[in-house]
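Forwarding the complex inputs:
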Amino acid sequence: MLKTYADMYEQYRSVRGIVAVDKEDLLEIDASSSQQVCRTFGVHKSMSVLRDLYNENDLQFFANVGAMPRPTTKSRWQEDTKASELFAHNTQEKDVQTLDRTFKPLGTGIGGRMIDALSEKGFKTGSVSIAGPCFALDSKTTKTLIVPESGYPEFGKSRNVTGIPSLIVRISSSLVAFYLFI
Amino acid sequence: MIKILHRADIDDQTATITDSVAWNNDNWFKVNWENGAFPKASISCENTFHAFYGCKSSVIVQEVPVFSSIPTYAEAVELSIGFQDLDSFDTGTYILAESGDEIHVYHRHGWPGYSIYTIFKIEYKGAAIYLRNVESMVTLTGTSFKLRNPPHMVQLAFGERRDAIYETEAILDHLLFHPNTAPFLAHKMIQKLGISNPSPDYVSRVATAFKEGSINFGTTSFGNGRYGSMSALVASIVLDIEARAVVLDADPSHGSVRENIVKLVHLLRALNFTKRTNENEIRIPTNLFDRIGQSPYMAKSVFSFFRPEYATVAMIDSKLVAPESQILTSPSVVSFLNGITSLLSFGLTACFQGFGEITTNDCNGYIDDTSYKNERSRGSLILSFGNDDSVVDELAMLLTGGRLNSSSRTMIEANFAAKNNPDEALRYAAKALIATAEFHVTNLFHPIANFSRPDVPVPSLPQEEYKAIVYVMLRGGLDTMNLLVPYSGCKDGKGE
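Prediction (whole assembly, two chains):
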């Protein structure tokens, strides 16, 4: 028999046990204009930036989103989640960034598909990553510009490369093939 | 699943029951009920005592034979109880009764016919093993319900380190001998050794060599003949027709993009890196990983520096992969070329983004390509070549395996010939060669006539407003259930 709770926060406390966040450690945000089951939700007090952005209408939460192909049950989950390899953290990281319910081994990311859709509508788009290549930005139309956190290195700054950049441009036809791979 | 729910009825008052099998713990055991049938309180327990919490019955535990005639190999291998080598008994203790396909049956002296003392000898995972024809059955008294006493390696009551070691060995064997292991390892190792998209036949040949433990090429044999031979695996990869066929170099999907760290080591070896006499080792800076995406012992995860299934955007529809491309980002390409050109000119220093540690604060002292002789570097590439056109040929052989296309070769030769200083000319040619496509991939390159890299204009800042989505991937460590917590006014919670 399932217990009934007078209040969903208490239910959350009961389910989460010792890792539940105390109410005094939560920042309350108003969700009364949404279709969500609660009028207010809490975000952790160290995430006040999320609360502020949300209050300024610059942040949106998507609740109950996950890389599951379909809703499932305890008795059927193995069959239902076969394509996504639930217990491998590399595939889970990929799945959450692609959110592609077909779980193809190769495909586009959630951000990449937004870019593709916007480009199709004639918008100018682009993607920049400061964390190396990432699945979320894989798109069919746009290559991600990868920028190191420390800034972009410049080629040929020192005197030792005199003539090399111009030579690279001249053997550029060979570099066309090379750049296809990067 | 079953669980012990009540105290054991034991006459011996001094007996103690260990915690792991006591009635008041939470240990559940997985058991196989015969024909899947078990007593249920809802159908009045069938002849068992109906207790307030379910059905209750006393039990009989019996060892019974599993087979009464010779089983097939596939049937016998499912037996769970092992036995010692029959050669360790006196002659005549066990008598070979009959043999089938890959199976021998021994009966114990005095126990003719199939009994719980019958032993089967089979080959399993490359070794002879002995299995007892026995299972322990638990019968619920007065009913038709039976369950098999689950076999386990470590005793539930008194676990021993020895048994834990056996069980660990058994798990490792299970993984090693799993049918997926050989093809998985074959595919990944072929990728590591230079062919990103091996054909299924190639993978199958390599997996077979791994399983059989040996492979012959001509009169030479590799491997020790046992399952899992790495020498057979590696030999079968590098000597396979798909790795050696020269014609495949022309296939744009053959071969691989080369790893940055492999290119660096290749350069140090091929161009005769010589450390300074007072240096014990080649030292590389700790931030090499941040610059070229690789550094010894610095892989970010168990999946190495790049994912085996990585494909660039341009390749998504082709179903091909180029794992090494994942770290070949434009910053890492620029950093790599900077490091290599610095190494060629100045030796291993930190000057001008060199790959050395900081050895001097005065990089301005490094002026031209003779600076590599400077004692302030950790070591240098000591090139000793002639100064005619054959130098470019030789360098191209060392750095591109002789695959350099004629158009780039002509250009590099012309520039080489135009330099007056031999040192400068040599180092110039080497720098130009590491900028060619052939140095960075393993296959051939055919320039397309009259086709040059398009000019990309320097982008300017947009004048109009734009929107950006900022995507932050919190890799592990975030408990999503604690990110957004129900707070108040929840309708299903019937609160407030």
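The CA atoms of residues 156 and 163 of chain A lie 9 Å apart.
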